[in-house]
Design brief:
Layout: H1 11-19, H2 30-46, H3 52-70, H4 80-89, H5 105-127, H6 135-145, H7 153-164, H8 169-175, H9 181-208
Helix pairs in contact: 1-2, 1-9, 2-3, 3-5, 5-6, 5-9
Bound molecules: ligand 1Q0.
Ligand 1Q0 binds near residues 44 and 53.
Amino acid sequence: MAGSEDQKFSLQEVLDTFKLCLSENKEVYLEQYVAGWRGLVKFLNSLGSVFGFISKDAVSKIQILVSYMKGENASHYATVQSMVKYELDNNLVDVNKKGSHPESGCRTLLRLHRALRWLELFLDRLRTSTEDSKTSALCAEAYNESLAQHHPWMIRKAAGMAFLVLPGRQTFFEVMNVGPPEQVVAKLGEALPLISEVYQITEDLYAQHNLLDLP
Ligand code: 1Q0
């Protein structure tokens, strides 16, 4: 059950923030990226406390990024591109193993970036699903293809158990607050290319700088 109005999830709102993520020259604005995740966390929270361990981790990563965005070097944390450049130029990233910068912006964002791939796969499965599709199966497939590869056994196990209590497709679509199922499917079709583009730009940037395996 959604709480007060400002806690209510709307797919449109998340869609809007991902739309605003990209600058004219295709840089990814951190503020909008983080806002997109905040919207998704709202959704996750509305699903119940079983998902608390996931939302807690997402919130703590969001908070780390926000503290950089509001900190004394805020100007370097306007876009993912400027953050990567600033942190690498100033040796602020633990590249091979954890050291003096265990919570760099780069490694923190990488965790959300990997989760964005899960989201892309999951939403695409939802979009093309049929009335009798099981959200838990769609979610698990998307997870196994993406995030799971970066998670240890314990977390994979806990995630797998949480997926089992996901609400059914119809409830899922209702919580998105978009309207009837056809409209949800259309909205997902609109959202996916945007999410994919943000994902791909970040992926290319990280690959170019050898940052895809940051500890
Ligand atoms: C709808 C069901 C949501 C299922 C979310 C799938 C992701 C499962 C991830 C399990 C993460 C467990 C917590 C701990 C993980 C960390 O160890 C890990 C690595 O960080 P670190 O510091 O230990 O190296 N953290 C992560 O991998 C980040 C995980 C962030 C997950 C954020 C998920 C936010 C979910 C939003 C719900 C979206 C619903 C989509 C439908 C809405 C339509 C727009």
